Amino acid sequence: MLVEALVDPVLAWYGQCARDLPWRREGVSPYAVLVSEVMLQQTPVSRVLPAYAAWLERWPTVAALAAAPSGEAVRQWGRLGYPRRALRLHAAARACVSRHDGQIPSEYDDLLALPGVGAYTAAAVASFAFGQSHPVLDTNVRRVLARVIGGEARAPLTPSVAETARARSLLPGDGRAPAWSVAVMELGALVCTARAPRCEACPLAAGCSWSLAGRPEPSQPARTQGYEGTDRQVRGRIMAVLRDQRGAVAWDLLEAASDDAVQRERALQSLLDDGLVVLAPGGFALPL
Length: 288
Known about the structure:
With 288 residues, this protein is mostly helical. It has 3 domains: 1-17 and 133-224, Helix-hairpin-Helix base-excision DNA repair enzymes (C-terminal) (Endonuclease Iii, domain 2); 29-128, Endonuclease III, domain 1 (Orthogonal Bundle); 231-285. Helix content is 52%, strand content 2%. It contains 14 helices and 2 strands, in the order H-H-H-H-H-H-H-H-H-H-H-H-H-H-E-E. It has helices spanning 3-17, 30-40, 45-58, 62-67, 70-77, 84-100, 108-112, 119-128, 139-148, 161-169, 177-190, 209-212, 231-243, 261-274, and strands at residues 278-280, 283-285. Strands 1-2 form a two-stranded antiparallel ribbon. It starts with a helix and ends with a strand. The model has no long low-confidence stretch (mean pLDDT 92).
């Protein structure tokens, strides 16, 4: 399929069907784009929207976030999940202050060098904040391209070199690469979904390899991860107690996190190892 046969229909569809999301609006700062991209990792848009607004209200600039204690970033993160993202975002802000005069760098390599910023986030910020041309391979984009081009129901667990090269080859070379990237991302989120794709509403249905093949089942089952009763759930409960308290929290106040003392201790130790919790006089606390 030619690039034009992909790009034009998707951009036309996006112009009519895209959600009005604050990080996509004209004039949004590169810092706000970075905040949104970190928050959106493994978290639905509906949960991110209020957290994003509250975060930017409290810390509207990189410098404001960098000046705050890292523990306050973790506290503000609330129940978004995967709170290490808050520590990484805070560390990235401090790196921007120390290395880039309090600005988000525009170059991909400089973005990638920030603490906690991986290939996807660097590409997304370079594309959406600075208008550059990079393959932005989130889960939705990978699923759309796997189906339309590869005829597969599901992309592999991790992007391969070949997959990244394919995505790069599909970027339009006329300045529309950022728009294409966000449009195909939206198509995956709203139409070409994982569990209930709406092929009848897809602008690429007529040329989609997967649809034309009869929408075959994935060659490998999806990897699912439970939550109830896991160490991750106990970690979340411990973090909730610490966020709600100022100062140190004694060990016995964490007992409600799990009836299993061994699991509770294991979860707490993992939080200590991750730097999300620190030892403090009288117990445990969020980092300073």
